[in-house]
Amino acid sequence: MNRRSFLASTAASVLATATGNKALASVSNPQLSRYTAPPRDTLNPQGIRTAGIRMLPVVQGKYKVWTKRLGSGSTKVLLLHGGPGFSHEYLEAMESFLPDAGIEIYYYDQLGCNNSDQPDDPSLWTLARYTEEVEEVRRGLGLDHFVLYGHSWGGILAIEYALNYQQHLKGLVISNMTAGTQSYLKRTARLKHQLLSPASLKSLEALEAKNAYDSPEYEKIMMTELYPQMICRTKPWPEPVDRAFRHSNQKIYIQMQGVSEFVVTGNLKDWERWDRLHEIKTKALTIGARYDEMDPKDMTKMATLMPNASSFICPDGSHLCMWDDQAFYFKNLLSYLQTL
């Protein structure tokens, strides 16, 4: 018998034995005859360690997204990154603090971002679709009674998830995200005048009047004068932050946010949830920062509108205060997580 025939014969024998055993068990235990095997995982190799990385099906299995687990513990935190269109990478500060405290964390690149599939389909880039994606990821990871953490755009997504699937939450963290687009625009309009010199402000507004948002001059003002003050104040920026910017998907950002941090022209332009925060009953935490592009007063106000929420403000931080006010940020975040 040649090798191919031998393998085929062996496989047939194993299959017949397994089928026979299952049939016999069904006769002796009628309940087993109704047994349906779980769907086979075709996205991940079986029986080997993959550093906590799992690909999960989304959009009814049409695409897959990247996730990674670090640490272990009874408190499990799913991290929603900002953007839209960025990735988990700038949140890597988390792994220096949470796993050592016995908290299990899950990174997750949203569809279209970095390690996940990146289909060229504009119909996918909506808040409603992303909200359902978070629920698909939750089910795929087997999480329940878990903590949902959302930073920036991820905070919008976390609020939406809580309004639709609150029954699965043990806790909710909204970091550096106000509850409506209009309050965000009011804050950024003020910052533009506060942070720029008169000459730079004049140049920026002239470029905006011409819709020259993709011009090198506009980008230079943003990246060298505004972002170092309101996005991340560390010098130089941490490598994971640089990496997240390099890997951003601008198509998603433009469709959902718009052409600039200061001009929301995308499909989030009418997003407002101030009047629904009272519906979020889970134990929640809001985080703000003194120099953030989100008004820290909004973070405090949001906590007063949720029945079971608290807040803290990083005195030396900006939008990425998990980096530029790191010790204060994680001391207070861990204090909250350890009460759950």
Unreliable stretches (pLDDT < 50, length at least 5) are 1-37
> What's the Cα radius of gyration?
24 Å
Q: Using DSSP, what is the number of strands? A: 8
Number of helices: 11
How would you classify the helix and strand content by structural class? alpha/beta
Helix-strand blueprint:
Elements (H helix, E strand, L loop, with lengths): L2 H26 L24 E6 L4 E8 L4 E6 L22 E7 L17 H15 L4 E6 L1 H13 L3 E7 L5 H15 L2 H12 L6 H15 L8 H8 L3 H7 L27 E6 L6 H10 L3 E6 L6 H4 L1 H12 L3
Parallel strand pairs: 3-4, 3-5, 5-6, 6-7, 7-8
Antiparallel strand pairs: 1-2, 2-4
Helix pairs in contact: 2-3
Can you walk me through this structure?
The protein contains 11 helices and 8 strands. The protein has helices spanning 3-28, 127-141, 153-165, 181-195, 198-209, 216-230, 239-246, 250-256, 296-305, 321-324, 326-337, and strands at residues 53-58, 63-70, 75-80, 103-109, 146-151, 169-175, 284-289, 309-314. The protein starts with a helix and ends with a helix. Mean pLDDT is 90; it is low at 1-37.
Task: Supply database-style keywords.
alpha/beta, 15% strand, disordered N terminus
Short description:
By secondary structure, this protein is an alpha/beta fold. The protein has helices spanning 3-28, 127-141, 153-165, 181-195, 198-209, 216-230, 239-246, 250-256, 296-305, 321-324, 326-337, and strands spanning 53-58, 63-70, 75-80, 103-109, 146-151, 169-175, 284-289, 309-314. The longest helix has 26 residues, at 3-28.
